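=== Structure Prediction Worksheet ===
Name of assembly: unnamed complex
Input type: mixed (protein and possibly other molecules)
Chain count: two
Listed entries:
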Amino acid sequence: MSFPLLTATAALPAVGAIATAAVPAARRAAAKWLALFFSLATLVLAVVVLVRFDPDGDRYQLTESRAWIADFGVRYELGVDGIGVALIALTALLIPFIILAGWHDADPLETKSSRWRPTQGFFALILAVEAMVIISFEATDVFLFYIFFEAMLIPMYFLIGGFGDRAHAGSDEKASAQRSYAAVKFLLYNLVGGLIMLAAVIGLYVVAGNFSLQEIAEARANGSLDMATNTERLLFLGFFFAFAVKAPLWPLHTWLPNAMGEATAPVAVLITAVVDKVGTFAMLRFCLQLFPEASKWATPVILVLALISIIYGALLAVGQRDIKRLVAYASISHFGFIILGIFAMTSQGQSGATLYMVNHGLSTAALMLVAGFLISRRGSRLIADYGGVQKVAPVLAGTFLVGGLATLSLPGLAPFVSEFLVLVGVFARYPAVGIIATLGIVLAALYTLVLYQRTMTGPVKPEVSAMPDLRVRELAVVAPLIALLIGLGVYPKPLTELVNPAVKHTMSDVQKKDPQPEVEAAK
Amino acid sequence: MSATAVHNLWTMAAADPIDKIDAPKIEYGQLAPTLIVIGAAVIGVLIEAFVPRKSRYYAQLFVSVVALAAAFAAVVALASGGYGTTKARIAAMGAIAVDGPALFLQGTILLAGLVAIFTFAERRLDPEAHGNRIDSFVAQAGAVPGSPGEQAATKAGFTTTEVFPLALFAIGGMLVFPSANDLLTLFIALEVFSLPLYLLCALARRKRLMSQEAAVKYFLLGAFASAFTLFGIALIYGYAGSVSYGTIAKVVDGTLTTVDPALAGTMGNDALLLIGAAMIVMGLLFKVGAVPFHMWTPDVYQGAPTPVTGFMAAATKVAAFGALLRLLYVVLPGLRWDWRPVMWGIAVITMLGGAIVAITQTDIKRLLAYSSIAHAGFILAGVVATTEEGVSSVLFYLGAYSFVTIGAFAVVTLVRDAGGEATHLSKWAGLGRRSPLVAAVFAVFLLAFAGIPLTSGFSGKFAVFKAAAEGGAGALVVVGVLSSAIAAFFYIRVIVLMFFSEPKADGPTVAVPSPLTMTAIGVGVAVTLVLGVAPQYFLDLAGQAGVFVR
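=== Predicted Assembly ===
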C-alpha cells in the first residue's frame, strides 16, 4: 500500500493540535511556534498533493479505502478531485497566515491561574479546525464527511466564544455576553442544519444501502439505483439545508455577521474563508452528484435565494457601521455568487464558482486581516472612529485598499476572473439572473470604496494620529496574500486547468450540457 | 368456584404420591452471573453483622468488586460458549432466558455496576470529619436528620457500608430483570432491584431531608407502578392461563387455545390481553422514565446521593429497557399492530418533553434527569423499529449511554462548596477557567449526550435512528433529530457557562478525587471516545446479540 498522503495531510494538523495543547502553560511562545511549524508542514504536504495530482487523470485520485464501521455501511474512503485539491491548498495556505495574524490574540491578560492556557488552546483549536476541514474536502464517504462536517463546529465554537477582540469598545462583560451569544448562535444554526442533514444521511442509507459517494453516484448514473422523485427531493433538501446554513445562504445567514463581528479577525477569516467553503464545496460534491434530478428541480428557487443573498448582503454591507460586520455581509453577497455559479449548471459557472471559493478566501483574508490589524491599533470596530489613516500608516492603508479592490473584483486581481466566469456561466442559461447579479458588483464597489474613503482618507482623526504602520509580522501575512491575488488575477490558468476536468465530471453527473450559442444552434 | 372443583383438586393432590414431584432442574452454570452477585450480597450482609466496623469498608469494597468482576467473567464465558447465539436457551424451569440480549445487557449492567461501585466507595471528596474519612452516604441511616444521634454517629465515624450489599442486591435484580422469561420472575426481579434502590436514595449524607423526600417519592410512585405491573400480570394470566412468556406468546398468536379448563371463560379475551399488557408496559415505562411516567425522575435524581443517581440512571435504564424489549418482542410480537402506535406516541412525547423541559432547569442533576428522559425517548425510537437491527441498536445505545451517565454524575460529585456538592448551575460559571481538565471532561460527556460526532452518543443515536428509519419510522427520526437540536441547546448552555462565563468569587472548588472516582471518570471518557471513533467491535457484539430466545 502506498503512503496515505491524504490521511497524512489531514492528520498532521490534528497531531499538531494535540502537541500544541500539551505545551506547558508557561511556554506560550513555544506553543505558537509549534503551531506555526505544523501549519507550514501541512502546507508542504498540501503542495505535495497538488503536485501529485494529475488534472487529466482519474476523477478521484490518491484514493484510500479502509474498512471502518461495517455495521453502518461506512468505509474510511478518501479521494480528491481538482476542486478538492484547490480547496485543500487554499486551507493549508491560509492557516499559517491566520496563525501569524493571531499571534498575540490569545495572550492571557493576566496570569491568574497557572492551569489556564488560552494561548495553547487557541492555536490547538485552529489546527483542529484545519484537520477537520481538510478531511471534509477529502472524504468520499458521505458518513465520514458528515462526521467531520459536524465535529468541526465544536472547535469553531470555542474559537468564537472563547477569544474576542481585546479592543472592543464598551464594558468587558457586555462584550463577553455578545461573544457567547454569537458563539451559541453559530453553533445552534449549524447544529440544526447538521441534524436535519443527519436525517437525510440516514434516509440515504435506507435507500442506497451504503455511503460510498462513488458507488451511489455510479449506481445513480447507470440506473441501478432508482429513487422515487419525492424521496430524492426530500433527501436533497436535507443535505442542501445543512450546506446552505454553512455557506451561508439567505435567509439562513444571520449567524455569520454575529460570529464574524465578535470573533477576532483571524478567526473571522477562518470562518468565512475556510470553514464556510465546506458548505459550497459539499453542494458541488454531494448535492449535485447524489441527487442530480432534485438539484435541477430545485435550481430556480436556489437561484432566487442566491440572488437575494447577493443583493441583500451587498445592501446591508453598504449600511454597516462596523468594519467586521461589513466584511461579513460582503461575504454573504459573495457566497451568493458562488451558489449562483454552482447551480447555473454550466461549466463556466461551476469553474467560476470553484475559483471564486479560492479567490474569495484570499481576498477576504487580505481585507479582514488588515482590518484586524487596524482594529487592534485603535481599539474600535466602528468605521466612524477612523479617518485619514493613509497619512499615518500608508502601508496599512495601501494593503487595505488592495484587499478592498480584490473584494470588489477589480480586473487584474484574482476575484475578477472568477466573478466574470460565474456571470458568463449564469448569463448563458439565465440572462435575467445574470443581469440582476451584476448589480451586486456595483454595490460591492460602493461599500468597499466608501469603507476605504471613510477610514483611510480625509483629515487625520486625533485618536489615530499616533497609529503605527504595519509591523514585519503583519507584512509577512499580508504581502504573500496580495502577491497571490495579483498573480492569480493575471495568470489564472494553473487554477482553471486544475478545476475544469472536475467540473466536467460534475456536469455530466447532472446530465447538463453547456447551452450552445444561438448562431451555432441555428446551423 | 363450585364445591366439586375444590373436591377435585383435593383428590388429585392426594392421588399423586409425594415422591413423584420432580426436583426442579437448575442450570447453575448458566445462572452463574446472577448467583455470584446475589451470593456476594448475602456475604455483604454477613460482613455487616460480623466484621468489626473499622474493616467493613475494605471488606465490602473487596467483596463487591471481586463479585462483579467474577460475574462479568461468567457472562463473558457464557457468551464465548455460544449461549448468546447458537446455544441460547431457557434455563431454570422456564424462568430465565439465557440468550444474546440477556447476556449483553447483563454484561453492561455488571460493568456499569462495577464503575458505579467505585464512585460509591469514594471517600476523599469531603474533608475528614473528626479524623474519619467520609463518603457520600449518611453516617447512620436511622438517625433523625440534625438530631444529636446523628451528630454522635458522625463523630464516631460511622459509615453506612450497607450500601455495598444493597447495591449488589439491586444489581442482582437487574441481572434477572432483562432475562426473566415469565411474568412472575419479572415481577420479583423488579422488586428485588427496586427496594434496595429506594433505600439507597434515602442515604445522602448532605441535604438529608431532600434525600429522604426523594426516597419516599420514588417508593410511593414505584409501588404504584409495581402494583400496575402486578395487576397487569394477573389479567394476562386470566387471558393466557400462564405466566410463561412462550405460552402467552402462543396464545396471542392463536396457535394455542386451551391451557387450563378452569380459565375457559376468560381465555382469549382480548380486553384482558390489551389492558393487562398496557399495565405491565406502564410499569416498565415508569422504570425507564418515559413521559408521561417520568414525574419521579427529576426529584429522585436530584435528591439521591449523586453516586446512586449515576448508578440508577445507567443501570436501571439498561435493565428496564431489556425487560421492555423482551416483553414486546417475545411475548407481544403478535400484538405489535396495537402497541407500535402507542410506543410511537410515547417515544415522540418523551423525546420532545424531556428536551423541552430540560431547557428551563437550573440544577445540574435535574438537567441530567430531564436529559435522561429525552434519551429514553431516543432509545424507544429503536424499540419501535421491531427488527433485529432495532434490538442491537438499543443494546448498543444502552451500553454507550450508561458509561457517559456514570461519568457525568461522577464529575458532578467533584464540584463542591461548603454545602457539599454545588449542583446549582450558576455555581458552575467559569469552571473551565479554574479547572480546565474537569470542565473539559464534563464537556466531552455533554457533547456525547448531545450526540456530536466522534463521541459514543453519536454512534448510538445514529444506530437507533438508522434502525428506526429502516423499520419504517422515518417520521420518528425527524422528531428525533429535532429534539436532538433542542437538547443540544441546553447541553451547550452548560458548556458556555463553564468556559465563557467569568468565575465567581465564591464559586465552588473542585475536589481532587481518589483513584476510584478517577477510574470511573476515566472509563467513562475512554468508552465515550472509543465508541465514537471505532464502534465497529461493539456494534458487532450488539449485532450478534440481537436475537431473543423464546
